[in-house]
């Protein structure tokens, strides 16, 4: 008698083992750094305000005092915007690098920034939009449209939306949108003057009226990022093996794409096209956690806000009595960190 032996279905891969002590210490450091950046954002500015006054303004506010008004109306909203935008950019960068398996992926790779910028330019030049709150919805719509177009183009063909095709489609769309932006701005000097302030990437003049309407989108994007973390661990093995393990590639990429649109669109709408946070933060997280995207997503949620808020604080200090936009400072902060990581870790593939 012969026995028919059925080949067992392959089990889902276990994430690479990470030293628990390293993760715990990294998590504590992330919390401490985030707390310090928030405190610095509330304390530092062109107007010197003591820590006691800041504490009083937060927990016993008195609107008749000028210092309390500065804290409540300027520094608190600015800090909240930095935290939300940094959270969104950090998570979006981790998702982009995971779903495309490209270590250089950031919000610019899939055309998100270019789409947001094009729609903001259109809003300024053709619809007379002048306020930050007005830019928000144009930027969000542009990011969503760009990501949708990139995914549709990348899905053409027999293999569907592969990482290489998505990256190429995003690069091509970015080039096309950038050309359109240049054409519009060259024909309208007033639109150029307004656009360049938004495009620099800054937390200045961004208040709660901008942040609060976009907070629900960031919340949904964060939840989707958490859900996608396990999917990214499987996708990192390659399409063929992921499919053999039972992973629905279309579903995984759609979940990641929706999360990226929500996160990148919201962050770009709030703070402008800040690109380096989403590029550098996942690498810092990966250096601590290893390749497990469940941990990379968690750490990126802390490091993103810390980097952006810290950059904003430094921008207030180094150019007093003026300021340097956070988007410019982020590049100076993040570039050395990323160079050091590239020298220490092989980043050819994720």
Brief synopsis:
Helix content is 74%, strand content 0%. Helix 3 runs antiparallel to helix 10 and helix 6 packs across helix 7. It starts with 19 loop residues before the first helix and ends in a 6-residue tail after the last helix.
Folded structure, characterized:
This protein has 350 residues and is mainly α. Helices cover 74% and strands 0% of the residues. The model is unreliable at 1-14 (pLDDT under 50). It has 13 helices and no strands. The protein has a single domain, classed as ABC transporter involved in vitamin B12 uptake, BtuC (Orthogonal Bundle). It has helices spanning 20-43, 51-59, 66-100, 112-127, 132-154, 163-187, 189-199, 208-235, 239-244, 249-271, 276-289, 293-317, 326-344. The longest helix is centred in the first third of the chain and has 35 residues, at 66-100. The termini are far apart.
What are the SSEs and their pairings?
Layout: H1 20-43, H2 51-59, H3 66-100, H4 112-127, H5 132-154, H6 163-187, H7 189-199, H8 208-235, H9 239-244, H10 249-271, H11 276-289, H12 293-317, H13 326-344
Helix pairs in contact: 1-3, 1-12, 2-3, 3-8, 3-10, 3-11, 3-12, 4-5, 4-6, 4-7, 5-6, 5-10, 6-7, 8-10, 8-12, 11-12, 11-13, 12-13
Features:
mainly alpha; 13 helices; globular; 350 residues; ABC transporter involved in vitamin B12 uptake, BtuC; 0% strand
């Amino acid at each position: 008698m012969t026995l028919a032996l059925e080949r067992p279905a392959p089990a889902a891969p276990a994430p690479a083992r990470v030293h628990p002590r390293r993760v715990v210490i990294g998590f504590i450091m992330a919390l401490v750094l985030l707390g310090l950046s928030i405190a610095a954002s509330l304390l530092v500015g062109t107007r010197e305000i003591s820590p006691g006054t800041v504490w009083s303004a937060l927990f016993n506010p008195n609107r008749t005092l000028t210092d309390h008004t500065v804290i409540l109306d300027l520094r608190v909203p600015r800090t909240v915007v930095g935290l939300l935008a940094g959270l969104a950019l950090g998570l979006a960068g981790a998702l982009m690098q995971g779903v495309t398996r490209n270590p250089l992926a950031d919000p610019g790779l899939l055309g998100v920034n270019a789409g947001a910028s094009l729609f903001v330019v259109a809003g300024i030049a053709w619809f007379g939009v002048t306020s930050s709150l007005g830019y928000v919805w144009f930027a969000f719509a542009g990011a969503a449209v760009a990501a949708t177009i990139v995914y549709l183009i990348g899905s053409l063909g027999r293999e569907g939306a592969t990482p290489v095709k998505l990256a190429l489609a995003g690069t091509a769309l970015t080039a096309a949108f950038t050309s359109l932006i240049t054409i519009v701005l060259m024909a309208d000097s007033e639109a150029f003057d307004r656009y360049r302030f938004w495009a620099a990437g800054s937390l200045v003049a961004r208040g709660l009226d901008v942040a609060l309407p976009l907070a629900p989108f960031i919340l949904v994007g964060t939840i989707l990022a958490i859900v996608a973390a396990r999917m990214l661990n499987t996708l990192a093995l390659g399409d063929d093996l992921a499919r053999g393990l039972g992973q629905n590639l279309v579903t995984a990429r759609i979940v990641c794409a929706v999360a990226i649109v929500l996160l990148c669109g919201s962050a770009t709408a709030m703070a402008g096209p800040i690109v380096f946070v989403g590029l550098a933060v996942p690498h810092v997280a990966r250096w601590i956690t290893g390749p497990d995207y469940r941990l990379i997503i968690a750490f990126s949620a802390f490091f993103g806000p810390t980097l952006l808020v810290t950059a904003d604080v430094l921008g207030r200090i180094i150019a007093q009595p003026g300021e340097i936009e956070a988007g410019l400072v982020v590049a100076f902060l993040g570039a050395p960190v990323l160079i050091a990581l590239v020298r220490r870790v092989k980043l050819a593939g994720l």
